[in-house]
Amino acid sequence: MIAEVILNSNSKQLNRVFDYQIPEEIASKVKIGSRIMVPFGNRKEPEEGFVVNFKETSSYQVKAIKQVDETEYISQENIELAKWMARRYFCNISDCIKLMLPPGTTTRVLENRVKEKSASFVYLEKDGEEIELAIENKQLKSDKQIRALRFLLENEEVLVTDLEIFADVSRSVINTLKKNGYIEIIERPIERNPFIHKVIEKDQDLVLTPEQNQAYQTICDSMEDYLYSEFLLFGVTGSRKDRSIFAID
What is the pTM of this model? Predict the structure, then answer.
């Protein structure tokens, strides 16, 4: 299978697709929109590129893809959008593709990219009846283990850190429950929220100055008379001419 690749380059001469062989060992990982590393020309270091299409054969002697980033790829819809943007604004497709990448991941150096934030979640591996039976038969004797399991019975999905706090148990207790097959711990990505600690103050109603109010009333009178005339607002920089415009909207 051949991948058509757009190189991550600002050069206009390289603003086209290049064919690369997809090695069998990574074939299942390569998708349209995948970020990949490929050999190019006589350069020692591989270049970054984006897969934009697949085809069966190539009329060129092609090199093989070196590496694929499994965690980051762009949807086919966004690839098509990037192509349209490049035609519309006369720029490289790779520049448009990079606009769709998450902030902090545009650098070519993998080690310098912002990593996806993840957290450890705890899930029960046994149902409630089996757990209660184990408690009754004294298979579970530790009060802390029992407390942790009963907390999980009341809460389907819990962060490991929350279980430690709310059930008042240590990580060793949780690890013992996992070792004995009562729970499972899964690492899952979580969404970053840059505004979680940001305090957003409510806007106050704008009050027009006498001069702004006069301009506002003049424009409103014209609109009421269906004249829809053009108006030019005079004022020095910082005189809040925009407030008059927003008031009309």
Answer: 0.48
